[in-house]
Amino acid sequence: MAENGGGGGCCPPMDLMRSEPMQLVQLIVPMESAHLTVSYLGDLGLVQFKDLNSEKSPFQRTYAAQIKRCGEMARKIRFFKDQMSKAGVLPKEMLGKENDIDLDDVEVKLGELEAELVEINANNDKLQRSYNELMEYKLVLEKAGEFFSSAHRSATAQQRETESPRASEDLLESPLLQEEKSIDASKQVKLGFLTGLVPREKSMVFERILFRATRGNVYVRQTVVEETVIDPNSGEKAEKNVFVVFYSGERAKSKILKICEAFGANRYPFSEDLRKQAQMITEVSGRLTELKTTIDAGLGHRNILLQTIGDKFELWSLKVRKEKAIYHTLNMLSLDVTKKCLVAEGWSPVFASKEIQEALERAAVDSNSQVGSIFQILRTKELPPTYFRTNKFTSAIQEIVDAYGVAKYQEANPGVFTIVTFPFLFAVMFGDWGHGICLLLATMYLIVREKKLASQKLGDIMEMAFGGRYVIMMMSLFSIYTGLIYNEFFSIPYPLFAPSAYDCRDASCSEATTIGLIKVRDTYPFGLDPVWHGTRSELPFLNSLKMKMSILLGVSQMNLGIIMSYFNARFFKSSVNVWFQFIPQMIFLNSLFGYLSVLIIIKWCTGSQADLYHVMIYMFLSPTDELGENQLFPHQKTVQLVLLFLALVSVPCMLLPKPFILKKQHEARHQGQSYAPLEETDESLHVETSGGSHGQEEFEFSEIFVHQLIHTIEFVLGAVSNTASYLRLWALSLAHSELSSVFYEKVLLLAWGYNNWLILIVGIIVFVFATVGVLLVMETLSAFLHALRLHWVEFQNKFYEGDGYKFAPFSFILTASEDE
Rounded to a whole number, what is the largest CA-CA distance in the chain? Predict the structure, then answer.
């Protein structure tokens, strides 16, 4: 419950029961020391500033230009981070302090580095594009050259067969696709051609469109490029084909050029002269070698520059984030032009007053200010924020409670009891000490390596498990405890504490029945006797035990919730809630379900065969009838009549008196206040931030009465439904036990019975995966959610309003974690 806050006794013990006492403070800070003051308060992290300029837009505030300047530096830092991530350069850990560097120097340095890096990137992109274009050009020269050379060879061979050697020589000097000699020279047509690369997925459509656009007056030849090609325009890898398109006429050429542009086909010049082709390939290869050397040198220079940036990246990033947070906070302060000072208001814990004053004094000295800052406490009727000082063990539980709603200021905190009751109710549903050990081992791994894991970026699910590692540890420890009570280790019973108290009377009782058992030893000392497991009466026995246990636990926790409402009423000095809320609720709940709990305990102690269902049902239907064999103690009928009468009387006690008493208190409070005395006008430091006169607030009796009616109906009906809701403890415990038993008997034992090593190995693998996937993951999540519901609905609605707001101080630690 309480723990010393450290710091040499400067802070009071940490108390989770109620929020830390808070105060509204006012700081009057000279302009010359304002920046350093906010910086020191950010390091302290114990002041939540109020926005005194809420009516102004962000651009109308005093430090809008500085925030814009910090935002520009932050953009440059994000640019550097992106560039380092692409290059695989990791920023070094911060060794210096952010105070060692000046923001102006950082701004100049960032600007110079960005300009240099942008220039290097632009040059590198230009060179890389030229390199990719030359690579494509080289592929075109090689692939198209192969096509032209093969066509040339086949034409030469054909001509040698049909014509004389002299004619053949003439043909070698003629164009490649010249018409036959029989055709008139005046009617010969000179064919043009275009070469390039087209994406492979578009090649068939490309060829079809060309054919249709020219009405078949083209000849297209394509060759597949085996390796992937980097496209010069997009810079991405793509599979392409080299194409050669033969056409006739300028009109066809213009159509082909437009189609190439539409399909993203890159065109390159090509000569049909074999000697020129060889010369061009040599030139392109030489230029590629030169470009590769230049690109490598540029990348080396770029990596050196990024290494230089990485050496101070964390230092610059932290400095810029802090400066931006400081100026955001300064914009929330009110500017007094005449006095050349800033006025700040904010919430802080009472224990932090001395530390805040020391920070103000230190800032005034360090900034060489001739005037010190003024610290004063304001009186207000505004509801303060809620602040619980937690550690790494209690923070996860407090987050679970806050997820339902943040406690109202000074309201009793359910987290104090949730630390124990949450893992315990989870364990009631999950009870198996084998599964509990598995959970504990997994959690101990997270706890042992928590320092290393805390500095790493984990996945969403892993991050959630790591944050709640101590809650899971408690859940696993309680699961081991309840598993020992249930005597289940992966559904297998073990006589750990003593031999079973029962033995078989003869061999006939070995057929899994408890009828033939006789008690030969003392009662099993702890938990369930292992002899129950596997018997025909195991399920009825465990059902009865766990169902009654669930009711006892539920009634106990609901009573705890109502008792907490008493302490809330006492703390807030509300005697109305004590007499007309706490007492009637205690009477109603315990007259019915408290009585049922007592009957369960009496039945366990006496071994009676009374039917408790019959007792409770006829307590309402026929309260005057004789109980007969269902009577558990003398004068039971009289006791039931009294309890039933008290339960009926408590309902109007909850409903009627409170609205009338509140109305009377309101009238008495405001009687004779039509002419209120004027308050002192020179008390500028005493502010009323709740807005308006509280003395003239309206009292809507009908609204109060309806609210009380709803609250009463909700409690009366909820007493029944909430008690029934706790039966989920029995249901999930039974489901977990039966699932574990099925996996053991129908998978592991079944595989063992085949006397085959392969089947046994498969059975073990299936058993392990079923245990981990279903019982250790799905069942854990299921039990966690049900325990969460029992706390949020059944327990906390008895006393917890949860309509407060959390204390959110200005802190550089929180700012850094939010940015990440």
Answer: 138
Rounded (10°) CA dihedral 360, 362, 363, 368: 130
Q: Give 23-71 as a DSSP string.
A: EEEEEEEEHHHHHHHHHHHHHHT--EE--TTTTS-GGGSTTHHHHHHHH
Residue ending a domain, choose from 378, 404, 433: 378
The pLDDT value given to residue 97 = 54
Give the 3-state secondary structure of residue 716: helix
Structure token digits, residue 502:
């029962």
| Torsion angle defined by CA atoms of residues 629, 635, 641 and 642, in that order, rounded to the nearest 10 degrees | -150
- Eight-class DSSP state of 806: B
What is the per-residue pLDDT for 682? 37
Across the strands, what pairs with 27?
A: 344, 375
Residue type, 25: V
User: Are 755 and 724 members of one domain?
Assistant: yes
| Distance (Å, whole) CA 585 – CA 568 | 15
Most confident of 10-19, 112-121, 335-344: 112-121
With contact defined as beta carbons under 8 Å apart, do 201 and 224 qualify? Answer: no
Q: Are 345 and 329 in contact (CB under 8 A)?
A: no
Inside any domain, residue 708? yes
Stronger pLDDT, 461 or 785, i.e. the higher one: 785
Does residue 275 lie in a domain region? yes
Distance (Å, rounded) from C-alpha 513 to C-alpha 535? 5
Q: In terms of domains, do 415 and 347 share one?
A: no
- Domain termination residue (choose one: 293, 311, 344): 293
3-state secondary structure 227-285: CCEECCCCCCEECEEEEEEEECCHHHHHHHHHHHHHCCCEEECCCCCHHHHHHHHHHHH
Q: Is pLDDT above 90 for 95?
A: no
User: From CA 594, how far away is CA 579, in angstroms rounded?
Assistant: 20
Rounded distance between C-alpha atoms, residue 196 and residue 191, angstroms: 17
pLDDT at 40 over 50: yes
Domain CATH number, residue 136: 3.30.70.2750
In a domain, 175, yes or no: no
Residues 6+ apart with CB under 8 A from 146: 223
- Distance (Å, rounded) from C-alpha 387 to C-alpha 23? 12
Residues spanned by the domain of 336: 27-108+300-378
Strand duo 22-30 + 517-519: pairing: unpaired
CA atoms within 13 A of residue 229's CA, in its CB half-sphere:
28
Q: What pLDDT is stored for residue 142 in this prediction? A: 85
Contact 731, 782 (CB under 8 A): no
CB 418 within 8 A of CB 475: no
Tokens of 688: 């009323």
Report the domain count for the chain: 3
Does residue 601 sit in the same domain as residue 731?
Answer: yes
* Residues pairing with 194 in the sheet: 245
Residue pair 178/188 in contact by the 8 Å Cβ criterion: yes
Is the CB of residue 228 less than 8 Å from the CB of residue 138? Answer: no
Identify whether 359 is part of a domain. Answer: yes
Banded pLDDT at 141 (limits 50, 70, 90): confident
